[in-house]
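Hi R.,

Here's the chain you asked about this morning:
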Amino acid sequence: MAVFKSKGAVYKAVRDVDIGPNSREVYIRANVKAPRMAGVLVKVFAWFLEAPIFGAILLYILKRNNLIHKLVSFAELEEPPVFVPSQPFEDVKEEEVKYIESDLPPHKQVQQAIECLPSFSEDALKHQKLSFHRWTILDYSRAYSSGETTPRLVAEQFIAAVQESCNPQLHMSFFINYNIGDILKQATESTLRYERGEPISVLDGVPIAIKDEIDCTPYPTTGGTTWLHKVRACTNDASCVQCLRSCGAILVGKTNMHELGAGTSGINPHYGATRNPYNTSKVTGGSSSGSAAVVSAGLCPVALGVDGGGSVRMPAALCGVVGFKPTFGRVSHSGVLPLNWTVGMVGILASTVEDAFIVYAAISGKTSSHQSSMLSPKTCFPLLKSTNFTSNIKLAKYGEWFNDCSDDIKVCCSLALDKLHEHYGWETVEVTIPDIETMRLAHYLTIGSECTTSLSSLLQNVSIEELGWDTRVAFRVYGSFDSVEYLNAQRIRSRTMQFHEKIFEKADVIVTPTTGATAYSIMNDALKTGELDYINGAAFVRYQIAGNFLGLPAVTVPIGYDRLGLPIGLQFIGRHWSEPKLIRISHALQALFISDYKKPEVYYDLLKKK
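And the predicted structure, written out as tokens:
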């Protein structure tokens, strides 16, 4: 196709680009030129793409029309590539934090986190004022310690609730796999520890679900496929799962996900479309769809996901819960499917910011060898019980990008910023973030290339018919990227990392809506084939990419609902290793909106007295 080579964009050097509010840099909206396809249409499209000659021509046209060629493939820029989005830790003295000894075991790190939280009396008073309240980790721990209930009774209620959610009337498709015997065994052991007065930590007996991209015995790891577990055995827990298990948590099963993380809807043709607890006719978002839905529906206060392109934060926002993605390298990736090496990160979906913080404390610290060889940063936790929260927080806002969302989201998020200024005096700093759409396409090229490369040896032993139709299309596109395109994507990574470093010199965090649209309807024609909906997909990932492509920590907090009652989230993106500040800021945001949270249509109260 070299004879038809498109003209590429010529980028100015980073030093010559203005990131101020009056910059002449042009905001490029997502230029998605692909109709929605499902059912027979997606099958025909997959066949065309897989055809030897016609497929290559079609791929060239798709990449040209969607600006991949112009903005990435044939782009001219001077920056060298950056292959891993790591930054050295700067030992900046933080306010209102607690420094933690290195190499503490997970249960002791959890205890250190608990000591940073408000007292029980403050917490209980806050709950009395809420119209709706999801049970938290501390609620479970107190109920067990007081004898109100036991982990065994909660496990029995959990099992009954999951079985109810599977009935034809609901068909929520929360889980790919759960084992009743294993759940009850863990719960019985936890109950005995409480009876002896020897719980391991506040996580003891707390139900936690694990995305089926993360190894957790005794379950196979399917990655949302019907075949992966047959060619890749799960023999041990992932590092993050080991941490939770050592704290006494009840690991209740493997949650549903978009097949191989290759989509944003959460519709899986093999295991069902995970349905949004706020409206069961709507998607949850993906790919950590099941993990978001089980937290939203009250089945677990916390679940683990993996965030490669907003795959934790996006479904969290669409399902009305907290989603937290730490800095690249902060949590070990050991035992997680290698679907992407340089953009994926274990993340946390939780009822509250406090719950996300507690689980973050349990799983953070140890990094795997492929992620970073740099000196690990010091571990410090935010003092959330402190009332002396600083009022000089600066929020960087890129107006054109911020407003590139539905009207309901724009209004809701703008009102949230007004409220933050009114209550805390936080200042919004207008900035320009160049190359937003370029970064999205470079990330897409990177995650696609890494996914196909990491799975190539396994896919050689699998018939293409075992993949869902939408995943077949995704992998055909992913496999079309060459080494020159991948290198250009990493040069764009270098460039956009420098832009963000400049922005963090002006502000503490970047603030955005979490998604550009709220949850859309699940169509029947997508249930057996999956669907291609790149327009909605681009809206869902619009504000997600910096967290993954640049390795930045990010968190989404629920702040309201659209006119249909579907959740809306606000996102903060921080500089590398800034988790303490990010948790404090999101905790302050949550305090302004938690009293207005609404109960989902599908909700299970596992601590309800019979």
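Residues 145 and 204 are 10 Å apart (CA to CA).

Let me know if you need anything else.
M.
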